[in-house]
Amino acid sequence: MEKGKGFTYQGFTFRSEAELTEAKKEAEVVAYIRGQADLSNMKTVVKLYNRLIEKGTLTTELGIAFLKELRSRALESGVVAESSLAALPMIEKKETEQPKVWSKERKLLELYKGRAKNLTMVVIALCVVILLMFVIRLFGTASPFTDYEQKVLDKYAGWKEELTLKEESLHSWEQRLAEWEKELQEREQDFSGETEMEP
User: Fold this and answer.
1) What residues pair up with 93 in beta bridges, in sequence order?
2) pLDDT above 80 for 142
3) Buried residues in 18-50 as b, exposed as e (16+ CB within 10 A)
4) Alpha-carbon span 108 to 6, nearest angstrom
5) Alpha carbon distance 139, 126 (integer Å)
6) Angle of CA points 91, 92, 95, to nearest 5°
7) Residue closest to 91 by CA, chosen among 122, 121, 50, 63
8) What is the pLDDT of residue 1?
9) pTM assigned to the model
10) Which residues are 8's β-sheet partners?
């Protein structure tokens, strides 16, 4: 098995270790079938062939070679017509492993894709929260902020009433003082007038 040219197993060449592993599994299946099934009985061969095609058990070049062998045996025996046999499956060509140079870039790309998804989810969640806040503010009547605001307004309204009452009492005191001053001035004038007349 040479790494640069591929992996060889039982005369077949595979491009990757994954394909080689799958081919080894299929080789075990083929060996089991050869050991257990009576391949000299053509009815058994036809049933086995059709069942393996139907289930898609064999997909590598090694497995399909075994299916070709079963198909040619059945056709050579003349027991079955070619139209009654299922067609052979196509060999799936799997992508080869990418070079290590691309793997770093791919890891970074995957990392950024993951972060972008997370950030998108966070942005969407924040937008929903902001939208809900606007809806609550517009249509909500009994929010804790509204209650607090009403309490503060009630408190200041009470203070305003108290201040108004105190202002009124101060004005009445001012008026009384003004009246007392007037009376005092009148008495002073009367007193000063009396003192002038006495001598």
Assistant:
1) none
2) no
3) ebbebbeebbeebeebeeeeeeeebeebbebbb
4) 29
5) 20
6) 140
7) 63
8) 42
9) 0.43
10) 13
Q: Is 47:85 a contact under the CB 8 Å cutoff? A: no
Domain ranges of the chain: 7-84, 98-140, 144-199
What is the distance between the alpha carbons of residues 28 and 34, in angstroms, rounded to a whole number? 10
| DSSP per-residue codes, 39-83 | TTSHHHHHHHHHHHHHHT---SHHHHHHHHHHHHHHHHHTSS-GG
Provide the residue type at 105 as one letter: E
Between 139 and 134, whose confidence is greater? 134
| Residue bearing tokens 């990418």 | 98
Give the pLDDT confidence score for residue 143 in this predicted structure: 59
Per-residue pLDDT tens digits for 24-75: 888 888 888 888 877 888 888 888 888 888 887 787 888 888 888 888 888 8
Place of tokens 């059945």: 74
Read off the amino acid at residue 64.
I
In the block, which residue shows the tokens 């599994």? 25
CA dihedral for 49, 53, 57, 63, sign (positive or negative): positive
The whole-angstrom separation of Cα 191 and Cα 186 is 8
C-alpha span between 150 and 139 (Å, rounded): 17
Q: Please give the angle made by the CA atoms of 88, 90 and 93, to the nearest 5 degrees.
A: 155
